């Protein structure tokens, strides 16, 4: 069983609940959506067996307990559940960043960040541990009704642009029980 990959690197989570937490990022290649605003390079760069990915995570991050599967869309590959199991068996905590379109059963201890774009699957909305909404000229608050009120919603200004930061900040202050501001802190210090 193989995984199609774009990159594996050791850095720090810059967004959301776990901001500041060291993590090994595993960017899976490919996405099932084609958002016109997408600025992520999720092109296929290499293919690796699951054991090779686990070994590479260990080589990059040593004892770092956190691994973040991102993309592209990490749940679009059929081997992803096996990769999750292998990483957990190796003692890692697994977080997943998904667009939430694909209904994939996940172990309870997997943290799920859902950033909806279109075709959000209700099961993934219900499973979300946190929501990330990209603020680009407007706050896409229509998504909030899809999630439990108990699920934290992070407003993330696109490109950290001042106008988008202002919109997100205003919305968070207006609805403090609903929103949190999430800046892409890794970009402030010039890391991935
Ligand atoms: S879902 Fe995310 S990774 Fe996929 S095309 Fe849209 S913005 Fe890009």
Molecular structure report:
Helix 3 links the parallel strand 6 and strand 7. The longest helix has 13 residues. The protein is globular, with a radius of gyration of 16 Å. The protein contains five helices and nine strands, in the order E-E-E-H-E-H-E-E-H-E-E-H-E-H. Helix 1 crosses helix 2. The chain is an alpha/beta fold and 192 residues long. The site of iron/sulfur cluster (SF4) has 12 residues, from loops.
Please describe the topology of this protein:
Elements: E1 2-12, E2 22-28, E3 46-49, H1 50-61, E4 66-70, H2 80-89, E5 93-98, E6 111-114, H3 122-127, E7 130-135, E8 153-157, H4 162-174, E9 179-181, H5 185-188
Parallel strand pairs: 2-4, 4-5, 5-6, 6-7, 7-8, 8-9
Antiparallel strand pairs: 1-2, 1-3
Helix pairs in contact: 1-2
Iron/sulfur cluster binds next to loops.
């Amino acid at each position: 069983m193989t995984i199609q990959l774009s990159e594996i690197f050791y850095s720090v989570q810059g967004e959301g609940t776990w901001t500041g937490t060291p993590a090994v990022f595993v960017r899976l290649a490919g996405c099932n959506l084609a958002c016109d605003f997408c600025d992520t390079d999720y092109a296929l760069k290499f293919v690796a067996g699951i054991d090779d990915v686990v070994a590479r995570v260990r080589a990059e991050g040593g004892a770092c307990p956190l691994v973040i599967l991102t993309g592209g869309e990490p749940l679009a590959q059929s081997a992803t559940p096996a990769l999750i199991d292998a990483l957990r068996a190796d003692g890692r905590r697994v977080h997943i960043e998904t667009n939430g379109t694909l209904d994939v059963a996940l172990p309870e201890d997997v943290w799920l960040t859902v950033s909806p774009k279109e075709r959000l699957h209700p099961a993934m909305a219900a499973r979300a541990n946190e929501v990330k909404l990209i603020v680009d000229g407007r706050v896409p608050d229509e998504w909030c009704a899809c999630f439990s009120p108990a699920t934290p919603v992070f407003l993330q200004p696109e490109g950290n642009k001042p106008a988008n930061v202002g919109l997100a900040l205003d919305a968070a202050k207006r609805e403090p029980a609903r929103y949190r501001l999430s800046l892409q802190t890794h970009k402030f210090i010039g890391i991935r």
